[in-house]
Amino acid sequence: MHKIIILISLFCCVAIPAAAQSAVSGTVSGRDSLPLPGVSVRNIRTNSMTVSDANGAYTIPANADDTLFFSAMGYLSMGIRADLVPADLRLRTLVTSLPGVEIVKKTRRRDSLETREEFKAAFNFRRPKVKEIVMITPAGIALNIHKLYKALSFANNRRSDTFKGRLIKYEQDRYIDERFSTELVTSRTGLTGDSLVQFMNHHRPDYKFAVEASDYDFILFIINACTKFRQGEVSVP
């Protein structure tokens, strides 16, 4: 009888550790409580791992005091003791903060300043003056060879003059476009479509008028020009 009790005790000692290793099952959900497939579930102690299926369901061997680590792309990872894992575990969305972006509206003035900065050498170009080439000193007359060479480089000077002229013309056209806008013309004349395009091309004011005219004079010019346009005439101040 004594031997039977000993055998039963030994059997219980062996069976208890075996029974201690159980499995944890459950589901994982994400946004809007929808099942989340592809979630990695890892037992930290045993390093065993499984992945949730299409329904967000998983099963992994674990003791009650093991820690299970849940991770998925786009969600905050979470470590939970096995006996505390809820039947339906909900992962929180990972929010990534992006640096602020400032949108700066492009204006004619800003564009003009950027153009002048980019082509500073062209805008600042001028031919050397005589007094910069020939200098009278107590010792006699001296020549600035660098200035003289620059003054005699006719081909380079012509190219620089031409390029500078084109840049200035570009700036002037942008200024006219800003004042003589399609929005302003349409609001004062009612012209749209092809008629508007023809009017803008045939009655475009020159730069001098665009700069010197007051708002009243400019609007009056548009109204008078529209009257002539409807009569088939072209008028450019």
The number of distinct helices, counting runs of at least 4 residues, comes to: 10
Largest sheet: 4 strands, antiparallel
The chain-level mean pLDDT equals: 75
Radius of gyration: 42 Å
Q: Termini distance?
A: 128 Å
Main-sheet strand order equals: 3-2-5-6
Approximately how much helix is present in the residues?
Answer: 40-55%
Strand content: 15-25%
Shape: elongated
H/E series: HEEEEEEEHHHEEHHHHHH
| Strand runs, count | 9
Oligomer: single chain
Which features would summarize this protein structure in a list?
237 residues, alpha+beta, four-stranded antiparallel beta sheet, three-stranded mixed beta sheet, 10 helices, 47% helix, disordered N terminus
Structure in words:
This protein has helices at 2-20, 108-118, 120-123, 130-133, 145-152, 154-179, 182-189, 193-202, 207-212, 215-230; strands spanning 22-29, 40-43, 49-51, 57-62, 67-71, 78-81, 88-90, 134-137, 140-143. It is of the alpha+beta class. It has ten helices and nine strands.
